[in-house]
């Protein structure tokens, strides 16, 4: 385990954005940009110390730009498959995946990642 590297936080953009019915479906890209900006401003509440935040977007949200504090990965296909790849690539590093997707949670915990639900980055609705 690489204890020197900051915690890698992989955020399931579609799942977190979709966790609150606030009209996100009318502008998926804009909703992903608002999530990115919130992550850049607030980080991950309850996770002290440096964290490396990676927001994975897919579909209509592809093309959202990275900003200081948040890298954005536009999944070429399935966002879930891309997040599993990212966890596998981070082998030996502490990794937290933020999603409520049960299947994805199972897939990444099998690779050693921790998981947390959307509220861990969204806060109360």
Summing up helix and strand content along with how strands pair, one would put the structural category as alpha/beta
In DSSP terms, counting alpha (H) and pi (I) runs of 4 or more, how many helices?
5
Shape: globular
Strand element count:
5
Report the radius of gyration as a whole number of Å. 13 Å
Unreliably modeled segments: none
Relative strand content: 15-25%
Largest sheet properties: 5 strands, parallel
Overall helicity: 25-40%
> In order across it, which strands form the biggest sheet?
3-2-1-4-5
- How far from one another are the termini? 35 Å
Would you mind describing this structure in some detail?
- The chain has 5 helices and 5 strands, in the order βααββαβαβα.
- By secondary structure, the chain is of the alpha/beta class.
- The protein has a 5-stranded parallel beta sheet with strand order 3-2-1-4-5, sandwiched between helices.
- The mean pLDDT is 91.
Concise summary:
By secondary structure, this protein is an alpha/beta fold. It has helices spanning 13-17, 28-42, 79-89, 102-109, 119-122, and strands at 7-12, 51-57, 70-74, 95-98, 114-116.
Which labels suit this protein?
single chain, 125 residues, alpha/beta, 34% helix, 20% strand, globular
Helix and strand topology:
Layout: E1 7-12, H1 13-17, H2 28-42, E2 51-57, E3 70-74, H3 79-89, E4 95-98, H4 102-109, E5 114-116, H5 119-122
Parallel strand pairs: 1-2, 1-4, 2-3, 4-5
